[in-house]
Specification:
With 178 residues, this protein is of the alpha/beta class. The chain has helices spanning 20-43, 62-71, 75-78, 103-110, 122-135, 152-166; strands at 3-9, 48-53, 88-92, 112-120, 139-143, 147-148, 169-171.
Length: 178
């Protein structure tokens, strides 16, 4: 096995979008697990890459996205997950972490061949990202307790699809970087 990166998907967020009222209870549950993953990854010198929606603000950069989320009504969900000076940050337009982003190039430059995907939403962005990683021949791990969902049944189905159809390793977050 080569080198691993922790990918934090769409967690720098104001939650002022469609379905946020359905998403927030799950986010509140997974934030501590994601924060622990980030801490352990940093401690083990594993690259932490935030891949985040730009929410249609095409002139924005990651600092602006972070500042807006810090000032939003759910800043308490962002604070434990904030990037540090060693974190990498990639903005995306929608869904997959790879779609129209430089992530594939970045991973190649870092020698990454295994991704640990955490964040939101399990049945959308995490699922599409896992598929795109799979077709790029990257190993994928998804800690089930570190991905938020809008609909539990769809998230469970998405995790099963990732495991069965994409060979993703589905585990608990406590199983990583111990």
């Amino acid at each position: 096995m080569g080198k691993t990166a922790l990918i934090v998907i769409d967690m720098i967020n104001t939650y002022d979008h469609e379905d946020s009222e359905l998403l927030l209870p799950s986010v509140e549950t997974v934030v501590p697990n994601i924060a622990a993953l980030i801490h352990r990854a940093r401690k083990s010198d594993t690259p932490v890459v935030y891949v985040n929606d730009n929410f249609g603000e095409w002139r924005s950069h990651h600092g602006e996205v972070l500042d807006k989320a810090r000032k939003g009504p759910h800043a308490d969900l962002v604070a434990p997950l904030e990037p540090d000076d060693t974190s990498l940050f990639v903005l995306k337009a929608r869904h997959s972490i790879f779609f129209e982003t430089p992530l594939n190039y970045l991973l190649g430059q870092l020698g990454i061949d295994r991704l640990v995907l955490c964040g939101q939403v399990a049945e959308q962005c995490v699922l599409y990202s896992a598929l795109d990683a799979h077709i790029r021949h990257l190993e994928v791990t998804v800690p089930r307790d570190a991905v938020a969902h809008i609909h539990r049944d769809l998230a469970d189905a998405a995790l099963r699809m990732m495991e069965r159809n994409m060979g993703a390793h589905i585990c608990g977050s406590e199983d990583l970087w111990q």
